[in-house]
Amino acid sequence: MDLYELLQGHIAVFLLMLVRVSGIFLISPFFGSMNISIYFRVGTALAITILLFPVVDGLGTPYVPENVIMFGVTALGELFIGWLIGFVAYISFAAITMAGKVMDMQVGFAIVNVVDPTSGQQIPLIGSFLYNLAVIVLLATNGHHMILAALVESFRVVPIAGMEGNLSLAMLMANFTGTIFLTGMKIAMPITFAILLTN
Q1: What is the pTM for the complete model shown?
Q2: What would the pLDDT profile of 106-126 be if each residue is shown by its tens digit?
Q3: Percent of the chain residues past pLDDT 90, beyond the cut
Q4: 125-140 and 143-157 are packed helices; what angle lies between their axes, rounded to 10 degrees?
Q5: Domains: count for the chain
């Protein structure tokens, strides 16, 4: 059976997969960068979905709701799963930017802000340097491959249309968000301590 015949019978599964893959391109580092054209991101998401579709379809055909409203709710759940994978990767970059803000306040660069082209926001000077350095390290160590591997594994762990609302998921997101400040302070502590000691 070729891909076209497979798509004819499982177009709803394909669309839900596309929505989940697209969630990564909203927030994750490198993939969600504003520097990358929206057309390129959409095309990459479509290509990844086409490549993964026969593999995910081989895991078993999930139950897809036939009602339009329930299908929309299921699509939102799939988008949230993709967004969550990108959010976990984004947390480490937010901690690095937080460390840059703390360092800038101690060094005296707190008033100097630059526009980060990847997010479109103003961030401190040292924070921008650390963020760009972290992106280079991510690409050099094939971290973007790990993000894609997490996406592929998510179809095995949470099947299509298998998302269930859970309080533990909200607590997990709250804990991840809370670690931004703590990790940022740990990264900035050596420079902060050295400057305080010098003063």
Answers
A1: 0.76
A2: 777 767 677 776 666 777 778
A3: 1
A4: 70
A5: 1
Q: How far is CA 18 from the centre of its chain?
A: 15
Secondary structure of the chain as H, E, C letters? CCHHHHHHHCHHHHHHHHHHHHHHHHHCCCCCCCCCCHHHHHHHHHHHHHHHHHHHHHCCCCCCCCCHHHHHHHHHHHHHHHHHHHHHHHHHHHHHHHHHHHHHHHHCCCCCEEECCCCCCEEEHHHHHHHHHHHHHHHHCCHHHHHHHHHHHHHHHCCCCCCCCCHHHHHHHHHHHHHHHHHHHHHHHHHHHHHHHHC
- The residue segments making up the domain with residue 20 are 3-198
Scored b (16 or more CB within 10 A) or e, 92-113 reads: bbbbbbbbbbbbbbbeebeeeb
* 8 A C-beta contact, residue 48 and residue 107: no
Strand bridging mode 113-115 / 122-124 = antiparallel
Amino acid identity of residue 115, one-letter, is V
User: What number of residues does the chain have?
Assistant: 199
174 pLDDT above the threshold of 80 = no
> What pLDDT score does 5 carry?
55
In 3D space, the residue among 1, 127, 112 whose CA is nearest the CA of residue 53 turns out to be 1
The confidence band for 179, taking pLDDT boundaries of 50, 70 and 90, is: confident
